[in-house]
Amino acid sequence: MLVNFQFKFFSELSTNEFHDIIELRLRTFVVEQNCSYLDLDGKDKKCYHVICRDGKGIVVATARILPPGLSYPEVSIGRVVVDENFRGKGDGHILMKECMKFIKAEFGIVPIRISAQKHLEKYYNAHLFFSTGKEYLEDDIPHVQMLFTPQFSEQ
After folding, report:
1. Which secondary-structure segment (H or E) carries 25?
2. Which top CATH class is 5-152?
């Protein structure tokens, strides 16, 4: 179970931390999902990054929190990933709950808009994100835009 979470703005990350975050993202999104895309989109430099390590200090989960105006008018969560050896145990849900708690502390009780892989829609529904109806292909993978609206939740 994931328990060791750190939230750091890009400028607070060490070179090793950023390397380990990118390594996990590339291993998952590029290699595992067999998808060639430009992960380094320039947004990382303006984001908060979530780091979760296992007992050996290896980064096993990460996400980035995008401030309002960077991808959407609202705050956003992106590049959500859990190492394949830690999946299926509820750790992804813990990661999302930690992201939501951080956003509430940093930005207040605000709407959150995300771009989710379509096959993960029910996962995000469990965190009260609901489809806006906008579906699209991103890097040849079906995606759906989803919105968390605080007045309809118990944040």
Report:
1. helix 15-25
2. alpha beta
